[in-house]
Amino acid sequence: MKILYGVQGTGNGHIARARAMSQALRRYDVSVDFLFSGRNKHKYFSMEEFGDYQTRRGFTFLTHEGKVDYLKTGMNNSVPTFLSEINQLDLSDYEVVVNDFEPISAWAAKKQNVPCVSISHQNAFRFSVPQKNANWLDRQLIKNFAPSDFQLGLHWYHFDQPILPPIVHISSDLVDNLAYVIVYLPFENQHAIVSLLTRFHNHQFVCYHPNNVEQVQIDNIIMKPLCHQTFQADLHRCDGVIANGGFELPSEALTLGKKLLVKPLEGQFEQQSNAATLESLGLAKSMDFLDASIVREWLDLKQAEKVTYPCVASGIAEWLVAGNWHCSEKLQQSLWERVDFPSYASV
Length: 347
What we know:
Number of helices: 12
Strand order of the largest sheet: 11-12-10-9-13-14-15
Strand content: 15-25%
Radius of gyration: 20 Å
Distance between the termini: 39 Å
Order of helices and strands: EHEEEEHHEHEHEEHEEEHEHEHEHHH
Largest sheet: 7 strands, mixed
Shape: globular
Number of domains: 2
CATH class of the largest domain: Alpha Beta
CATH architecture of the largest domain: 3-Layer(aba) Sandwich
């Protein structure tokens, strides 16, 4: 089986899931090529896992100081380029397209009648799961941004819906809590983050940000450039995580038993929904802006307990290679049966 795996490159969470799926698929007699879109090629990092991967411009959103900038987003995206990239992508060598909310490969598969299997957190919003501030356009984007024939949705809890637990790409046997907090708020102003964290002189922070070009120390903060390997090492050793409202990093933090504080991107319903869901499940705290009072309260909280998730990537890989994509009920049941939540979770 030859697979083209399309990955939305705007956020690192999609890439983390693809990294886990790449390793899981290696156990089978399949050939996988990767295509990423939504980010300039030179801004990808730690991509050795994906071999000779392809990139496309695709569609993405732009932000400014923690908010989606709709004007800049509209001006930055080119419909003619998007259509051209779809028309130029030849899928004749592939038996199936696997897709994580990546529009070029999805639309090319639709046009060329190649089966498309979608694996993403966004697919969970096709069902009755908690949503916050979702409008008609948001719902249309979820359904039509990257169309597919078969969908697997991922979420932290099943909500009695036909979805799966998260794909978590970590090695949980390396956990060693040290007295620092890892901070990853890529959509926030770098100086605003520093201004917030330096208020808490008795706490140590390790802050990753796209604008960090080298490692430097500012008072109680170590600023580090983006790197998958060093980020994972720091994530395993920290005792807490402050992150945006994405899906993959909170999933990793929950699996490692790190207490979690999330600040969702304003104007992005998925992140707003994620933050509200984590709070309602009792798995994290959230803040609507860089709120020092909430950070102070959160820092005083005791250490979290782990959420135990099975190896979802392995289960999906086996299901995918078997080829019976119409039926995923057994996969759903077998995976959720192995999930264990902390005693304080509201599930």
